User: Fold this.
Amino acid sequence: MVRRIICAIVASALAVQPVHAQRRAAERGIVRVVIETERGPVDVALDSARAPRTVTNFLKYVDAAAYTNGAFHRTVTLANQPANSVRIQVIQGAANSERGALFPAIDLERTSATGLHHRDGTISMARAGPNTATSDFFICVGDQPELDFGGHRNADDQGFAAFGQVTRGMDVVRAIQTSPANGQTLTPPIRILGIHRQAAR
Assistant:
């Protein structure tokens, strides 16, 4: 009887191991951060395995506290981009303007290479030309395939560097998107209290 119980316990433990292994594999390369805003927190999982250059750049600004007293300054809705034939929905955040661009611009990690796409809640780097991203970032509201490589939001069709996903707080993101704005400029901007790494669970 005792032998049967021991065998059952061992078998159960062996059955659970693959589940834990899968969970660890899924978590490998994920860095969790919290964007603290005056409207509430937004939890984000950054994928450093698939977008290492972009995540490393973003975390440099996080660790330098460059986003403390930064702001979400831009909202893009279907109603406020009349000059664009390809319309998107995002909110854009920036580091504290007094800190400036602390680090050099990074090369664009295209979605065609990373396999990450601009879905509802995706965080991505804002840019002008293909290799100009520094600290500004945006969060997608709804799926935005035109921001992927080959999408036509930008004339160069190179897309933007997606590098993570909101895991909690899309209600905050949507509240920011629908805040008062003058055109696409949030009036007033929504303050970012800070962005910090989340302790490992």
In short: The mean pLDDT is 89.
